[in-house]
Design brief:
Aspartate Aminotransferase, domain 1, three-stranded antiparallel beta sheet, globular, seven-stranded mixed beta sheet
Length: 368
């Protein structure tokens, strides 16, 4: 099997799974309970929370554990709007955002105003256009760190530095595709979402970093839990597993990046001379993602052909809507042929040069 769909989900590490199983067996108490078993679970949960906060260079009380990055994104947007009902309901974002951002804003469209910031030819934020829109004092700017389809990296430090000049505006970043992959600093970010299963953790556990100055109204009510911002019995085992997977991935981030850069370039070299192929990810994109289009070809057909060889790739993102084309690519290229025939290869450090060469060989001999 060759697995090139790591942006959708990664396989769980054995060490992380072992942590989850051990905590599940040994810490059976509800951390909200007052007895000794509850105290033991609560102590472990605080230790894991502190570890996550230290790794991200934020405060322990700024960590909110959720079930998914989509929930984190929803909590950031809806929680902010609900807590500040008398503030101007203007949100600035891009057309490149994940479905959990764009569909949430669409759901709220009758009650809020959404404006899309301009992008340059490489998909980067037009800072002058953002500055002009910030003059309108939006409540929130929500911009991804790394785009999940194309791999476009936004300079969140520079963007955040600009937003800081407008104290009535909060800055939310979807960092689902950046944590553990590219350097990350949250100094200029107010809200930050990510999920463990993108870096060899378990599904069902994610995080929203909420800086102290930000207030949110919970999506899930019912009393204090791991935090006042999300009710429910905390899964201590999942929280401990996230801390473990985050620590491990950050320890190897630099080495993994160099390895994946080589894989990305090898694939680019194998695709660049094919007339029907357009490479959509520029060299400034994250090396973990390479998006390309095979013109005049349905991507689903290609995916099913690769399935026969136990090679697994993607088109668009696993969470995108059922549109017949990529909205993100169309926003960038304004080309329906390119945006309706795109494929996404997403690497991990576990992939090999041999796998890339096998993919290229089958693509050229069996697909094109």
């Amino acid at each position: 099997m060759i697995y090139f769909d790591n942006s959708a989900t990664t396989p769980v590490r054995e060490e992380v799974l072992e942590t989850f199983c051990e905590v599940t067996r040994k810490f059976i108490g509800n951390p909200n309970s007052l007895h000794q078993l509850g105290f033991n679970s609560r102590k472990l949960m605080h230790e894991a929370t502190r570890q996550v906060a230290d790794l991200l260079h934020v405060k322990e009380n700024e960590i909110i554990f959720t079930s998914s990055a989509s929930e984190s994104n929803n909590l950031a947007i809806k929680g902010l709007l609900d807590f500040y009902p008398n503030r101007k309901k203007l949100i600035i974002t891009t057309e490149l955002e994940h479905a959990s951002i764009l569909e949430t804003l669409q759901q709220l469209s009758e009650d809020i105003d959404v404006k899309f910031v301009k992008l340059n030819e490489n998909g980067k934020i037009d800072l002058e256009d953002l500055k002009a829109k910030l003059e309108e004092e939006p409540l929130l700017v929500s911009i991804h760190h790394v785009n999940s389809e194309i791999g476009i990296i936004q300079d969140i430090d520079t963007i955040g530095d600009l937003i800081k000049k407008y104290p009535k505006t909060f800055f939310h970043v979807d960092g689902t595709q950046s944590v553990g992959k590219i350097p990350l600093a949250l100094d200029n970010v107010d809200l930050f979402s990510f999920s463990a299963h993108k870096f060899y953790g378990l599904k069902g556990i994610a995080c929203l970093v909420k800086k102290e100055k930000v207030n949110l109204k919970p999506l899930i009510s019912g009393g204090a839990s791991q935090t006042i911002y999300r009710a429910g019995t905390p899964s201590v085992a999942l929280i401990a597993s996230l801390a473990k997977s985050l620590r491990l991935i950050l320890n190897e981030q630099a080495d993994n990046y160099q390895k994946v850069e080589v894989l990305n370039q090898k694939l680019r070299d194998g695709l660049k001379d094919e007339e029907r192929i357009v490479i959509n990810s520029s060299l400034s994109c994250s090396p973990y993602i390479l998006n390309f289009s095979i013109l005049n070809t349905k991507p689903e057909t290609i995916i099913h052909k690769f399935d026969q060889f136990e090679i697994y790739i993607a088109t668009k993102t696993a969470c995108s809507s059922n549109e017949t084309y990529s909205k993100a690519l169309f926003a960038l290229t304004k080309n329906k042929n390119i945006s309706s025939s795109s494929l996404r290869i997403s690497f991990s450090s576990r992939n090999t040069i041999e796998e890339v060469l096998t993919f290229i060989k089958i693509l050229k001999e069996e697909i094109l």
